[in-house]
Structures are given as C-alpha cells and as structure tokens.
Write a structure and sequence with these properties.
By secondary structure, this protein is of the alpha/beta class. The protein has ten helices and eight strands. The chain binds zinc ion. It holds the Pfam family Hist_deacetyl.
Length: 295
C-alpha cells in the first residue's frame, strides 16, 4: 500500500521546543517495511486559497506574519516551514485520491485542524482536510464529507471552515480542559473529562458516530487519528492506553466501512516520541487491515 510523508522537509527548532518534529522521520523508518512511503507534493497556492483568506496566505508566503501570529502558531516562520506545510496538505490530497479509488488512504502527516480560514495557530499552518475537500469538490470527485476528529484537542479551525457547510459534518472528541480555550463549535463536540479512560472513551465515540453517520450519506470521510489522547501525553489530559487507542482506530474504521476514508496523523506529544510513533504505527496497521478487507 502507498502512503505519503513530508518528513524530509524537517524544520530546525530551538532546543527544548515542544513540537515533536522527530516523530515524522521515526515513523517513516518504522513503517518502511510495511508500506511504500511516497513523498508528498506541495499543493499550489490556488488550492490553499479555496479555503484560506488571501491576506493570510500572502503573509505566510512572504514571511510577514506578525510576532503575535507566530507566537500563536508556535513555530518560527521559515521558507522551509511553508514548503513543509504545503507538502503536508499535498499528502492528504494524495491519500484522498487513493481513498476514492481504493477505499482507504493515509497521510503520515496532516490533521492540522487548528488552522482556520483567516488564522494559523497551534502548530497548524494550513487546514489539510478542508483544502482537500475543497479540491475534491472542484474536481467533482466528492461533495458530502464527514470529519471524525479524535485528536485530543478540539478541531476549531475545521469547525470554523466546515461547521456552517451543509454538506460537511464535523465531529470532534477532545479533552474538555485542553487547548483551544476559546472554541468554535463543530457540528458535534464531545468534551471529555480529564482522566477519561478506554471504556468510557470508546462508548462515547461509538454513540457519537451513530449521530454523525445519521447525517449521511457521505462521499468521503476524514479520520484524524491523533496519538495525544494517550495517558502519557504531555498535552493530553485523557488516559487512553495504547491498546485502547488501537481499539479506537478499529472502531472508527469499522464504522466508516463503505465510505472512502482518508486517515491523517494529527497530534502526539509523548515525552519520548517513540511512544507517539508506536501509536501511529498501530493506526497504520489498522489501515492496512481495512485495506486488505477491501481488496
Ligand atoms: Zn492535538
């Protein structure tokens, strides 16, 4: 199976920076025997403009983001950061094309759900899912979409862009006390109490998927398989175990069966990035099992 990665466009960060840049390369090393990892292409600026405000794109392109904007983004601006961001979106577009032709696709990146129409924040420069959906619509490949956002942080950027869209349903399951502290409502938000464990989480997720799927039918689904609901995550506050996260992935993929599904990585901030990568590898294994069942 082909999957996509932008890991080679690795930005330099100051020592001690919280963004786990190393996880992307470690993941590619771990999975290269299981799948063929292709390099994500950068999307054209016109595709980004299907979703993002021109003025924001101009500031990003020219390196004119304000100090406040860069602080909100949490990453220092560089040409490489912009190139990497465009390729991260490109991986999700490529994975969506595979999903539409073969049933499922995966980007070993993306899930940048805090990027909105007119803001880039929370390590998210562009909203890969929203841009991909907009592009699929332009090409006449899909119209109605479901977003299942299981990153532990609420998907505020996706909610801003797709919440008012009658042909998109956004579901976000997240820690109630996590970033972002000012929410933009999704179609369905589940605010989970700190310390929520596997059983409660899986039961809530199953119920939420009932409601989300009732809003169908959908031409395409996006699954943000964040690794940050893990009990050891630094930014998480939830208490899922690694086997619990594997069950989460299996549950989502089973419930989305019959809908072309695009799986993206989203967050993961384990003190040792190898723990985040373990969770990402398990997600890929669930994707491979789903792909085998389809063929
Ligand atoms: Zn997150």
């Amino acid at each position: 199976m082909d999957v996509w990665s932008h890991a080679r466009w690795r930005i330099e960060l100051p020592p001690g920076h919280k963004f786990p840049i190393s996880k992307y390369g470690l993941l590619v090393e771990r999975v290269s025997g299981l799948v063929s990892v292709l390099e994500s292409e950068p999307v054209p600026w016109e595709w980004l403009a299907l979703v993002h405000e021109e003025a924001l794109l101009e500031r990003i392109r020219l390196g004119q983001m304000s100090i406040r904007e860069q602080r909100g983004l949490g990453l220092p601006w560089s040409e490489l950061l912009v190139e990497r961001g465009r390729r991260s979106v490109g991986g999700t577009v490529a994975a969506s094309r595979r999903a539409l032709s073969l049933g499922i696709g995966m980007n070993l990146g993306g899930g940048t759900h805090h990027a909105g129409r007119d803001f880039a924040r929370g390590y998210c420069l562009f909203n890969d899912v929203a841009v991909t959906l907009a592009r699929l619509r332009v090409e006449g490949l899909a119209q109605r979409a479901l977003v299942v956002d299981c990153d532990v942080h609420q998907g505020d950027g996706t909610a801003q862009i797709l919440g008012p869209d009658p042909d998109a349903f956004t579901l976000s399951l997240h820690g109630a006390r996590n970033y972002p502290f000012q929410r933009i409502p999704s179609d369905l938000d589940l605010d989970l109490p700190s310390g929520t464990g596997d059983d409660e989480y899986l039961a809530e997720l199953d119920r939420a998927l009932d409601e989300a799927l009732d809003a169908g039918p959908f031409d395409v689904a996006f699954f943000l398989a964040g690794a940050d609901p893990w009990e050891g995550d630094r930014l998480g506050r939830l208490s899922l175990t690694k086997p619990g996260l594997r069950l989460r992935d299996e549950l989502v993929l089973a419930r989305l069966r019959g809908i072309p599904t695009v799986v993206v990585l989203a967050g993961g901030y384990a003190p040792d990035p190898r723990d985040t990568v373990d969770i990402n590898v398990a997600t890929l294994e669930s994707v491979l099992a789903a792909a085998r069942a389809l063929s």
